[in-house]
């Protein structure tokens, strides 16, 4: 029988995760609200993660920023 | 001295003080009187340093009389979002938790403004812990938009937007993690810039997100904003995250033509549709730039929703790390909406967070390929609508919160993720008389180009010269 995929961050999971990882207790209403906010963010971030390459790392950001400084049309002067 | 002096721009009032047309004390007292008059309506100040400001202004006048060398902001009254530390002065961060917090050192940006001679007249209202683009504050009361006090000024630098627009001070600092300088600038009719990530020192400013926080000024004109940004930008030996790039003369850029500059426009605005009025404002703006000799080309920007999600992953994770101890110990001292926005970061996994950080370079490269391979700057709405009413944004921590956040930060938050500089420019008014703004986005460290584009637009428009009727000037 095909099982319906559960959302990652349902409220039960939120309560459990907060309690076990952070020793942090939230009530049911908060867990529900947090779940609704986090679920779409997580879904889109999961989709975006397909673009991640094996050797990507956070420090690459500074390299690209520096490379970009002097690229492009540059029709106006600094 | 009449209220007319309050209509002077920052650079005009600085020149007047220098030429002894009026004294800093006169200017400062004028501002303090206006603050006293309008504070009950606008609630844009959390604290006013009346005595200290008058004392500093008198000292500034003595320096003028003595022929001392004067800084570029000598004697000019400013106020800042109540999150920049000044040794011995309370810095609330708009929160109940930090209501009595007195830092033991002064923020680098304030040191730089002090060195330029500015007068600090008070701490401005803001969203609690700089978390919230609408600008509400449940602890100090909501700040109101001077163009219509039933409307929100935008946040999180709400007081900065309202105070400068209402002519209470000549400029203000704010912080921008997802749009918090540009959004209140747009909704209050001001010029506000978020520089390249690392362009301005963050030492001594309350953090929300280590990776995305940027501090920047809000002012009435591009020239005013350029002077403030030049003053605060650059290396800080006490902040290793501050860039070492030289800081060019931004004011000089404000007098350069934009003929030949190439502006990229995405007709779909990255997949987020603005209101008809904002869309029409963008169309008018394009024509105005064309009349200045700029070239317009169509580009196709990446999907903004995915970028907003990645940006949110970083902000929420870092904010939750900063706040984790208080979330446990002082949970009830947060307003519910702010608590929830920060608390969700506890549920984000470390790998998800690091993925979002690692993907930044990839997305920045894609943006470069999509935009800056073809054009010098990109033009987008700042906010897709005029200022909402306070009741419209009063959604608490309900299910409507994510939609409200998307409406206000959909165009600004991705720019923080890219780390690119972006400036808001007043672009006109809605049918109800509320300001509308557009943002110009540039390559890393090309803030000068943004001031150039903004100033050129202000040379042929007068939106920035109009003041809200409330100010009574």
What topology does this entry show?
The complex is a heterodimer of chains A (78) and B (473).
Chain A (H helix, E strand, L loop, with lengths): L10 H12 L5 H21 L11 H9 L10
Chain B lengths: L9 H9 L5 H19 L2 E4 L1 H16 L11 E5 L26 H8 L3 E6 L33 H8 L5 E6 L5 H7 L2 E4 L19 E6 L2 H11 L17 H4 L8 E4 L10 H16 L3 E4 L5 H26 L6 H8 L6 H23 L4 E5 L19 H9 L3 H6 L3 E8 L5 E7 L5 H14 L13
Parallel strand pairs in B: 2-3, 2-4, 7-8, 7-9
Antiparallel strand pairs in B: 1-3, 4-6, 5-6, 5-10, 9-11, 10-11
Helix pairs in contact in B: 2-3, 5-6, 7-15, 10-11, 10-12
Q: Any key phrases for this structure?
A:
heterodimer; A: 78 residues; mainly alpha; 3 helices; elongated; B: alpha/beta; Amidase signature (AS) enzymes; eleven-stranded mixed beta sheet; 15 helices; 11 strands
Explain what you see.
The complex is a heterodimer of chains A (78) and B (473). Chain A is mainly α and 78 residues long. Chain A is built from three helices and no strands. The longest helix of chain A has 21 residues, at 28-48. Chain A is elongated, with a radius of gyration of 21 Å. Chain B is globular. Chain B has helices at residues 10-18, 24-42, 50-65, 108-115, 158-165, 182-188, 222-232, 250-253, 276-291, 304-329, 336-343, 350-372, 401-409, 413-418, 447-460, and strands at 45-48, 77-81, 119-124, 171-176, 191-194, 214-219, 262-265, 295-298, 377-381, 422-429, 435-441. In chain B, strands 1-3-2-4-6-5-10-11-9-7-8 form an eleven-stranded mixed sheet, with helices on both faces. Chains A and B meet through helix 1, helix 2 and helix 3 of A and helix 10, helix 11, helix 12 and helix 15 of B.
